[in-house]
Design goal:
Low-confidence stretches: none
Distance between the termini: 66 Å
EC number: 1.1.1.343, 1.1.1.44
Mean pLDDT: 94
GO molecular function: phosphogluconate dehydrogenase (decarboxylating) activity
Oligomer: single chain
Family: Belongs to the 6-phosphogluconate dehydrogenase family.
CATH class of the largest domain: Alpha Beta
Number of strands: 7
Radius of gyration: 23 Å
Keywords: Gluconate utilization, Oxidoreductase
CATH architecture of the largest domain: 3-Layer(aba) Sandwich
Order of helices and strands: EHEHEHEHEHEHEHHHHHH
InterPro entries: 6-PGluconate_DH-like_C_sf, 6DGDH_YqeC, 6PGD_dom2, 6PGDH_C, 6PGDH_NADP-bd, 6PGdom_BS, NAD(P)-bd_dom_sf, Pgluconate_DH
Strand content: 5-15%
Structural class: alpha/beta
Number of domains: 2
Strand order of the largest sheet: 2-1-3-4-5-6-7
Largest sheet: 7 strands, mixed
CATH superfamily of the largest domain: NAD(P)-binding Rossmann-like Domain
Number of helices: 12
Helix content: 40-55%
Length: 296
């Protein structure tokens, strides 16, 4: 049994706490939402942990994570360990590690995939940091990862920052996969050749080269709403796709699929695109092609 402090009990953190407890570990959680928190404050959570302590951080990336790590640096002691399991940018990890290292506190970054299904299915984990610290936290990683061979759901990606870098690229790939499924769905709907689009997509789940968990989730969504009419086609991005493209540019790695998927998300948020108005105007000017006037 391992004792763990867990900061952030949102959609992911709450389920991670439940999975860890089911595996026999003691978890003391802290969240600003008193209804789910085990502690009244970050300091209260730390006071309930036995040294040497391990604290897992699951709060929004950027300022909230940096602030939480800095506060933990003031509350924890030499020999303790902090794991950032949020979606932090990998460039933040070096800073966080240095802040804690100055006080003798260890740091690991862990990219976590699995979403709301991780509680039952386990989470894919990508970890960056010193091997000794990874081994120390391995009972936690083993409890969170999927059942089966460790290497199929867990990887020690490298030094500090490598875990979040791996998760960043993972999410960039995810963008491309989702966009491909979405475009296939739209084409099947538009062609009027296939009479039962949900049945076709469901039929891809076994024996085809495009089967995947994302496809299973699309089938689930279509079971609930066969034409997805209950949704608005407005898609946000949480940052990892942008960071992936920035890294592709920095390393001169072509990434046309990921870039197209990210730009498609941008396009989904524009009800009236100035760029497409310009395209329509140009087609009308050089070719006399028909245009739609505003309000038509």
């Amino acid at each position: 049994m391992v004792q763990l402090g867990l900061v952030g009990l949102g959609r992911m953190g709450f389920n991670m706490r439940e999975r860890l407890r089911a595996a026999g570990h003691e978890v003391v959680g802290y969240d600003r939402n008193e209804a789910v928190s085990d502690s009244s404050s970050l300091a209260d959570m730390v006071s309930k942990l036995d040294a040497p302590r391990i604290v897992w951080v699951m709060v929004p990336a950027g300022g909230p994570t940096r602030d939480t790590v800095a506060e933990l640096g003031d509350l924890l002691a030499e020999g303790d360990l902090v794991i950032d399991g949020g979606n932090s940018r990998f460039t933040d990890d070096k800073h966080n590690a240095e802040v804690l290292s100055a006080k003798g506190i260890g740091y690991l970054d862990c990219g976590v995939s699995g979403g709301v299904w991780g509680k039952d299915n386990g989470y894919g984990l990508m970890v960056g940091g010193d091997k000794e610290l990874v081994e120390r936290a391995m009972p936690i990683f083993d409890a969170l990862r999927p059942d089966g061979p460790r290497e199929e759901g867990f990887s020690h990606a490298g030094s500090v920052g490598a875990g979040h870098y791996a998760k960043m690229v993972h999410n960039g790939i995810e963008y491309g996969l989702m966009q491909a499924y979405a475009e296939g769905f739209e084409l099947l709907e538009a062609a009027n050749v296939v009479e039962d689009v949900p049945a076709v997509i469901k039929g891809w789940q076994r024996g085809t080269v495009v089967r995947s968990w994302l496809l299973d989730l699309l089938v689930r969504a279509l079971d609930e709403d066969p034409e997805l009419d209950d949704l608005e086609g407005y898609v946000e991005d949480s940052g990892e796709g942008r960071w992936t493209l920035e890294e592709a540019i920095n390393h001169a790695v072509p990434a046309p699929v990921i870039s197209a998927a990210l730009f498609a998300r941008f396009a989904s948020r524009r009800k009236d695109s100035a760029a497409m108005r310009a395209v329509a105007a140009l087609r009308n000017q050089f070719g006399g092609h028909a245009v739609k006037k505003a309000g038509e």
